[in-house]
Amino acid sequence: MAEQTYRVEMKNINKSFGGVKALNDVQLTVKPGEIHALMGENGAGKSTLMKILSGAIQKDSGQVFLDGCEIFVKSPKEANDLGISIIYQEFALVPHLTVAENIFIDRLSEDNKGFISWKKLRGSARQLLDELGFNDIKETEIVSDLSIAYQQVVEIVKSLSRNSKVLVLDEPTALLTNKETRHLFRLLLDLKEKKNVSIIYISHRLEEVFEICDSVTVFKDGTYVDSVDIKDINEQELVTMMIGREMSDYFPERNCKIGEETFRVTDLNNGRMVRNINFGVCKGEVLGISGLVGSGRTETIRAIIGADKKESGKIELYGKELNIKCPRDAFKNKIGFLPEDRKNQGVLLELPIRHNATISCLSRYTGPCGWIYKNNETKDVTELTGKMNLKCSSIEAPVKSLSGGNQQKVSLSKLIASQCDVLIFDEPTRGVDVGAKREIYALINSLAEQGYTIIMVSSEMAEIVGMCDRALVFRNGTIAGELNGSEITEQNIIKYAMGVGENATCN
Questions:
Q1: Which residues does 336 contact at the CB level (< 8 Å), separation at least 6?
Q2: Nearest 10 degrees: CA dihedral of 314, 319, 320, 323?
Q3: CB-facing half-sphere around the CA of 271: CA atoms within 13 A
Q4: What digits encode the pLDDT tens for the residues 232-271?
Q5: pLDDT at position 284, please?
Q6: 3-state SS string over 365-425?
Q7: Ramachandran category for residue 324: left, alpha or beta (phi over 0 → left; psi -120 to 50 → alpha)
Q8: What is the pLDDT of residues 88-133, one digit of tens each?
Q9: Pairing relation of β-strands 478-484 and 470-475?
């Protein structure tokens, strides 16, 4: 039998940064026309390897082959010329330019001696969009006016306009709705089957990997673990490969003593998506809020914390009604909120960890003239980050230098340092790896044991089942069902979320 010729083959790749070994003799093989998942915890080396493939950084040693021929890629432009494209979570689009201009941004005047043929440019863009089945995206539309999903399509079309053989997608569904994710999957399957494009798919979402990928390679701590066909592995085995633990250890044991009710929402209304919401939460309890996209979960939380002005309703803490008109009012009343959009709303990426952790309670460390008592601040932040097992070189390191999971821990540390009584977490583990997820689960568990009142909004049903004492399932702006203890199962959540559980008896 002839030896397999891989579309991408990376052998014995090594890379160090300042004496720290980021990649240690790793390998990757991707076949023509397959979707290949690349998985591992944050810091496992996935992004570093892809940056080497795309020419953004240079390897220390090893070999890279494309269709059986060794290549030496020194820049992203050289990678593009060879047919290798990478699409990051943060898109490389110019928001105020049109779709057509973005697709051909680096070739606007190609073959026109410096002059741009706008008719040819728009016609070429229209042809590419039609070939991929996106007739509803206008080539003349401004990119900033498009949805996140369609912006991602523009990135993919831009890559394919260069006749890409290899397409790398980094957490492509992190900001997409379920409907938009389905559309993306159809596009990727078409690229694989009709154009023979090899797709390297980086994701922390196990269900996506098992749905769309043909094979998977796992890295751990900068080393290669294994490569297997998806059909030959299950979720439990894949998690074990990534974190070295059984999936049964994924969620920590809950031994929290639930106390008296501390927080209550009564008759909360705000437009079509928040209708007659009533619930209470107790000290030491983790209350889960679940439901499909568009069910009213986010709108309810926004009305509670004052991000949206409520039409009617009452919010009480320890039996006292609160007057919350904005998130600052919620914070003053000891209600802390961890936003879903970590990078834009949860942390200040350019500032050090120390500043991020204390920014919400800085008055505790300032004197009468506004001087900051840095020694006290440093001592408290060092102690706090130690308890959270934050992996960083120093608390003076900028937050942008951390992995996604550790950035989330910094965002959490800000809430904990502020000494709020009620903590509302919106998608607390979105975009973090399975190892960091477990650490965040353990931290939430610890906070509940300390007597905090916790509300956790999550689109991951396994997270609701594994972490919560009680769960509310939202549908069409109302609470469709409430589940307690052993009633919290994926089956029961789905029943209520899809409208077949209102009159169903939970087993």
A1: 415, 418, 420, 422, 423, 424
A2: -20
A3: 10
A4: 998 878 877 876 655 456 687 877 789 999 999 999 999 8
A5: 95
A6: HECCCCCECHHHHHHHHHHHHHHCCCCCCCCCCEHHHCCHHHHHHHHHHHHHHCCCCEEEE
A7: beta
A8: 766 778 889 999 998 888 777 655 566 778 888 899 889 888 877 7
A9: antiparallel
> Looking at the whole model, is its pTM more than 0.90?
no
Round the CA-based radius of gyration of the chain to a whole number and report it: 25
Instruction: Find the length of the chain.
Output: 507
Q: In what order do the strands lie in the sheet with 20-30?
A: 20-30, 8-17, 61-66, 69-70
Mean pLDDT over 357-367 rounds to 77
Percent of the chain with pLDDT over 90: 40
Pick from 477, 498, 493: nearest CA to 303: 477
d(CA 187, CA 225) in angstroms, rounded, equals 30
What domains can be seen in the chain, in order of their start residue? 8-249 (3.40.50.300), 259-334+422-499 (3.40.50.300), 344-419 (no CATH)
pLDDT at 260: 95
Burial of 179 (0-12, 13-18, 19+ CB in 10 A): exposed
Looking at residue 346, the DSSP 8-state letter turns out to be: I
The DSSP H or E segment spanning 443 is helix 434-449
**Distance from C-alpha of 449 to C-alpha of 380, rounded to nearest angstrom:** 21
Sign of the four-CA dihedral 41, 42, 45, 46: positive
Whether 154 and 102 have beta carbons less than 8 Å apart is answered as: yes
Which whole number is the average pLDDT over 348-355?
Answer: 84
In the DSSP assignment, the letter for residue 196 is: -
